[in-house]
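Lecture 7 notes: from sequence to structure.
We start with the chain below.
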Amino acid sequence: MSETRKQAEKPVASRPNIIFILADDYGIMDSQTYAQKFTGADTAKMFYETPNIDRLISEGTAFSQAYANQLCSPTRASLLTGKYAGRLGFTTAMPPRATYYNQDIAVPEGQYIHDVLEHKDNILIEQALINGISNSAIPTGSDLDKGWDELSIAEALEDYHSAFIGKWHIGGFGAKGYQPEDQGFEPLAWYDAGGSAYFNWKDRWNDTTNKTFPKLAPEKLDIGDAGNPSSEEYLTDDLTTQALNFLEQRAKTKEQPFFLYFSHFAIHSPYQGIADEISYFEGKDTKGWNGHKDPTYASMIKGLDRSVGKILDKLSSLGLEENTLVVFMSDNGGIDASITPRGDGTSNNPFMGGKACLTEGGIRVPLVFRWKGNVPSGQWVDLPIDCTDIYPTLLQAGGYNAKQIVAANDLDGESLMGLLTDSKNKKNSYTKTSHYWHYPFNVIYNSPFEPYPLTPHSAIREGNFKLIFDWYGRLRLYDIENDPFEKNDLSKTSPEQTKELFKKLKGWIKENIDKRYWPTLNPSYNADNEVRDKEFKVLFNDIL
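Predicted structure tokens for the same chain:
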């Protein structure tokens, strides 16, 4: 066994199975228990129903300040590698886009073969900045990667049986050699895309043609596999059935623990639910609570919650729940209906903004750990942590030397295992105090601060404070511990602290993120056509 993957001396029988459930676009206020935590409201008065996720929380430990990235692919990149997404070039999530690989063209010096050539929304107002670009695939060490190979969480859990179900979206839009099996997983049913139909999805997942990228031979593409057929007609239920079948199979193999990464498409668009469940929510008298009013969206949450319940029940019936760590998380904040072009989605109120924003509504997500007999039940951890911490946490839970692997592979995460039994961090087992985000895109979603499209943003959370850097030339500082809903911008009243955090954020960007993943000045920008009240100001000259 390699030194970078050294396993602690621990009896195999005591090492837990691990199930990591990742929800998609599931907001911090979409769970009844989380909503009650932040508002004190009676759960019976809420519109969405999440009894099984609430059960998971009551039987485990939940984090109130867990952070993901602003979009799904960056978070998935961080979860798989234990690194900040920007370091890997994962700066956004996209539908299929042209890359050097899928256009079969030579890669310029300093570029990566799976970098997109361009990504932009149809924004009609004047833009002072041109978007950066984004990577679209996690390197696997293939010849195309020119020596770049990230150690995936499945590869690090080297003597676990690792399996993957669901949404991948970090494989270069179906690039052969960058899919779950190439990162150490047994692929059960998966699709390398940002969204999927919830009915009649299988033909698309099993597509072996090259219609999307005709410049490539079909054998260079591998978009997905719908897996073993089930009797379920709804995607969330079908994937759950495949997960239950996997659990039944692995329950027969006592000598090897398993790791199941179950990455849901729910509740990502298209918004499609089961008809009788939609009808139920249409007639529910609590419709409208906290801005939650879409019956289809509510039905999709119900399907996700049902899936969690079936997983928990299956573990119990198989006698596995005492030795299985279950982790539930979302990949980014919920879509804020008030800032999306079509007005669909949810509301993260009282948190500001949603998906694509670096305000709390866009990056603060549910995170729950349940491991009966090992993780306290009904407990909250109120320290800020982020998605890079999941990787070392699962390693430590599995009996590996997480600190050694983090150091050897230059990871950004720290294990959360100590916090699960020491929720106030009195023993200082969790020492990370800084968290970073980078999003170099003009986005069609409106800013939560003004009725215009989002401009490129980066952010740092340091201790109690978060600084949001709008590359348009604005800084906002919030005391998140005392002002979690970001009502009071302190950047003018605390100029020295603002300056200090901005300097640290710029230093991190310069050191960790290649400039092709930065926004750049638009040479065609005409300030006379600017619609914003504040004029554009360059605040990043010192790191250019």
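Points to note: The chain is about 25% helix and 15% strand. The first strand starts at residue 17 and ends at 23.
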